[in-house]
Amino acid sequence: GCRSVRIIIEEAAAKGNMLLGLMRNLCLSRPLMRFVVLAHKILDGLENLPLGEEVSFAGMDTDSFQPVDGEFTADLTIHYCGHVKDMKANVLPDICVDSHYNVVDDERSWEYYQDYDKAFDAFRQMYREPMLAMIRELRRTIP
Questions:
Q1: CB–CB of 84/98 below 8 Å?
Q2: What is the pTM of this model?
């Protein structure tokens, strides 16, 4: 089973509360879970994380982040990013998560988010005219 997790906070990551919640849940499910967090930058809620250093998470609040001694081999690596669709490199079998609760954990989800912007643009184009017509009608009827 998984006993150690490396979390890489990517440059574009935002809002640390989802990450802290994820770490708490992992801690609750496996009380002896060990974390190493590599931070490109400090997020809100993770202010006590030493920037750019390996730290271990032992407990439920950021005051308990301590520097890691020696080598650390993780059973699982999680990349915490701004949005999974913006990840440029496929880091599988590592997992990517973002503050919107999106997850990339297999090839299918990787390919889905690679096409996300294209699909969203197509969606917007498809509904653009009906939405504009509805807005014009509302403006005409609302005093």
A1: yes
A2: 0.71
